[in-house]
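Each letter names a residue; structure tokens follow underneath. Both lines appear below:
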Amino acid sequence: MRRGVRQAMLQGIGAVARAALDVLAPPRCVLCRAPLAGEGGVCGACWPRLSLIDDPSCPVSGLPLVGKGAETLASLPAGVRREPWEGLYAAMFYDRVGRRLVHRLKYHDDATHAAFMARLMARRVARFVTPRTRIVPVPLHWRRLWWRRFNQSALLARELARITGGKYVPLALERVRPTRPQTRLSARARRENLKGAFAVAAAARAEVDGREILLVDDVFTTGSTARACARALKAAGCGPLRVAVFALASGQRALHI
């Protein structure tokens, strides 16, 4: 069975399982566990605990900008940047609350909050998305996908496409070889770990060539994964590329201009 077909089947199985779980166990606030009437997320009482990121923000680091030159720096042209993307946009910081939301989605088989997380991401990137935009998730290797049963980045990307009207292309990128988990690796080890790990699928090249891309992941830490994916997409001839992540892991809370 071809890798792309196998991944699509696994994601389909995961979607059916999640729908059944939603019926049996209605969503609750991930922070206080209060019942929620609608889609998963946090309740009104817990909303102020979210460390949301708003405009203006740095297109290179994703950090909020503070100061008189903030708007100017936020609109710098892509040519002056040293990253393979035109902009990096995060919904919130990867603090205690952000980590809890991500971990519920990623490690606890709780996908009920994906729509809520995608809505927070859409606040940052919806203005860039048109029907021509291809929304591409960071892929898992098929072995890890089999073990985890779903790709959290794909869940977020699918919901973002539904909200913004972009085209969801789940199999545009392939992780062509397994890699070690990035969590405990240094920045240099992360770069080495991901060398040659991603490629644009042959069947998806027409979807990528010349198209605007929104690359989606759950967390941005050192940027190694986003860079490796963005470079693979750029090598395949994509147009302007932006990165949307749910949470930004950073020791800084803002860049003061």
The radius of gyration is 18 Å. The first helix runs from residue 3 to 24. The mean pLDDT is 84. The first strand starts at residue 65 and ends at 66.
